[in-house]
Amino acid sequence: MRPFEYASAQSVPQALAGGGTGTAYLAGGTTLVDLMKLEVMTPQRVVDINRLPLRGVSADRDGLHIGALERMTDVAGHPLVGTGYPVIAQALLRSASPQLRNMASIGGNLLQRVRCGYFRDTSTPCNKRQPGSGCPAVDGENRGHAILGTSDSCVATHPSDLAVALVALDARVRLTGRTGTRDVRLADFYLLPGDTPEREHDLRPGELVTRITVPALPWATRSAYLKIRDRQSYEFALASAAVALDLRGGVIRDVRVAVGGVGTRPWRLPTVEDALRGKAARPEVYEAAAALAVEAARPLAHNGFKTTLVRRTIVRALTNLGGSR
Predict the structure, then answer these.
(1) What are the CA-CA distances from residue 217 to residues 103, 137, 253 (Å)?
(2) What is the dihedral of CA 104, 137, 297, 315, to 10 degrees?
(3) Beta strands, E only, 37-187
(4) Which of 3.10.20.30, 3.30.390.50, 3.30.980.10, 3.10.100.10 is the CATH number of 220-322?
(5) DSSP β-bridge partners for residue 260
(6) Cα separations (Å) of 87 from 38, 203, 246, 299?
(7) Is the pLDDT of residue 37 over 80?
(8) Could you tell me where the beta strands, DSSP code E, fall in 158-308?
(9) pLDDT grade, residue 59 (50/70/90)?
(10) Are strands 172-177 and 208-215 parallel, antiparallel or unpaired?
(11) Within 13 Å, how many C-alpha atoms sit on residue 73's CB side?
């Protein structure tokens, strides 16, 4: 780890005043500290924001509000989340390990960096670390990499389970900077790699993630997160699905579907949703809709199995929620 300057902010304005290029904000530290040890991230200044008043879980007519410094464990166990938005609680509980969930913040989870081995190995090229150096994963070991949203510059999957659930529910993230605040749809916050994979999200230098809002959605009480991975303990998704279902009289009135483990960002599936709305909750309907999820897939040498796996994950999630007739 390289030397750095440390500061502890006592207020949001103080944290923002100390931010900018070369500065990293420290909350739980479960990603930042690891990457600093590997010298993948080498900030000149680290600002500890744990004393900021960015906590709390509440609900009103606008929806569910979660402070960015809330810990993952606390949000997963909150009654407003578990009762009203079980897909969020399940995504959190299937993330990381209990020890990490006790430390990691909600804002930090949404900003965690990719788990690509080439990104974390500073002896190899990586366009995210050093733009223009290349992407060894394209022709290298890519079993766990993305099949949706990839480019010749990057094929790394987005790592957050929580983000998949929040994107499915049309959540918005509040970003606070020196010139004010702005609310951005989480689905738009994450950027496709294109030719600039080093830009992972629409967070400007010096800005902080301060709050997440999930719109009021009464039928989100019927929602779930299904994660398929190599082992049930601490492991990242090979494929996952976040589904919320409005089911009345055996007919799908409305639905939200997003998938993870297969995209370079959390992947909302509006074509799948459109294919489900107004249809009977039957296996053949689920399967036909799920097939649309991979129309734009670009599998690599070692991850072609994900095209089948993600379809089956969506069908299983829908079956678990809606049953079959």
Answers:
(1) 29, 39, 13
(2) -50
(3) 45-48, 57-60, 63-67, 172-177, 180-185
(4) 3.30.390.50
(5) 240
(6) 33, 25, 14, 28
(7) yes
(8) 172-177, 180-185, 208-215, 223-228, 239-248, 251-260, 267-268
(9) very high
(10) antiparallel
(11) 10
- Residue 325 pLDDT greater than 90, yes or no: no
The tens digit of pLDDT for each residue in 214-245 reads: 999 999 999 999 999 999 878 999 999 999 99
What pLDDT does residue 240 have? 98
Residue of 55, 54, 2, 45 whose CA lies nearest to 24: 45
pLDDT of residue 247: 97
CB burial of 111-135 (b: ≥16 within 10 Å; e: otherwise) equals bbbbebbbbbeeebebbbbeeeeeb
If one counts every other C-beta atom within 10 angstroms of the C-beta of residue 109, the result is 28
Give the end-to-end CA distance of the chain in Å, rounded to a whole number.
Answer: 58
Distance, CA of 72 to CA of 89 (rounded, Å): 9
Q: 324 falls in which pLDDT band (50, 70, 90)? A: low
DSSP-derived secondary structure for 1-17: ----EEEE-SSHHHHHH
Q: What is the pLDDT of residue 233?
A: 79
- Give the residue among 247, 248, 201, 191 at the shortest CA–CA distance from 224: 247
**Would you kindly state where each structural domain of the chain is located, as residue ranges?**
220-322
DSSP 3-state percent helix, strand, coil across the chain (nearest 5): 30, 25, 45
Tell which residue, 321, 97, 114, has the closest CA to residue 225. 321
Rounded CA separation 300/141 (Å):
10
Would you list the DSSP string of 216-246?
--GGGGSEEEEEE-SSSSS---SEEEEEEEE
Phi, psi of 237 (to 5 degrees): -75, 140
Amino acid making up residue 22: G
